[in-house]
Design a protein that fits this description.
single chain, 211 residues, alpha/beta, ten-stranded mixed beta sheet, four-stranded antiparallel beta sheet, 14 strands, 19% helix
């Protein structure tokens, strides 16, 4: 299985799990969450205004006046090191603008040929697929929602879910894909052209074992 770039942000990450080998990056205040769970990052990156102090070692420090968020700085660092799978903790909740910026970061990863997953403290999972597909095992339960983050997503198919879509067009101005449901069968979501933002609930450990 491919190694993972784990990024821990400043929001509540819940229990942190790193079951596969890879690179652990603390994005600013994420350093405190790691240390609070008895863990240490491989690298700490950011301007450290949220953390309030500079870690002692393995630090990539940036000035507060910058174009990228601390999470985006961590993502760029992982891409520079040729990671293709990213798992982001501590990037949901808190300020709405920060959470939205982290959703945009998933699109950035998809546009750069990588896969990114935001994992929330209450079992939330979010990813972006671009000109491709995502599959779910039969063990998945609850709600799954699909949105187009920008423009239009064409050739959208949803199979194995309560509501089926066939060759649909999903646009950023209409929540056509909100509140679908898993059925206890394997499920698949496909987009032929464009991007889909997919949100569902799944145990982090189970997700990390199959991505």
């Amino acid at each position: 299985m491919e190694p993972v770039c784990y990024i821990v942000g400043a929001m509540d990450p819940g229990p942190l799990r790193f079951p596969r080998p890879g690179l652990i990056i603390a994005a600013d205040g994420g350093y405190a969450h790691l240390r609070g769970q008895g863990l240490a990052p491989d690298i700490a990156v950011g301007d450290f205004d949220s953390l309030g102090y500079i870690p002692e070692k393995n630090v990539v420090r940036h000035p507060p006046e910058k174009d990228d968020t601390d999470t985006m700085l961590a993502i760029r660092l992982g891409l520079e090191r040729d990671y293709g799978v990213f798992v982001l903790y501590g990037c949901l909740g808190g300020r709405l603008d920060h959470a939205y910026a982290n959703l945009q970061a998933l699109s950035f990863l998809a546009e750069n040929g990588a896969r990114g997953y935001l994992l929330g403290p209450a079992g939330e999972a979010i990813t972006v697929i671009r000109d491709g597909a995502i599959q779910f095992p039969s063990a998945c339960r609850g709600i799954v929602s699909v949105f187009c983050p920008g423009g239009a997503a064409e050739g959208v198919y949803e199979r194995g879910l309560k509501y089926v879509l066939t060759d649909a067009v999903v646009t950023s101005g209409c929540p056509l894909g909100v509140s679908n449901e898993f059925t206890g069968q394997p499920a698949r979501i496909v987009v032929r052209s464009g991007e889909l933002l997919v949100m569902w609930s799944e145990d982090a450990g189970a997700l990390l074992e199959r991505i």
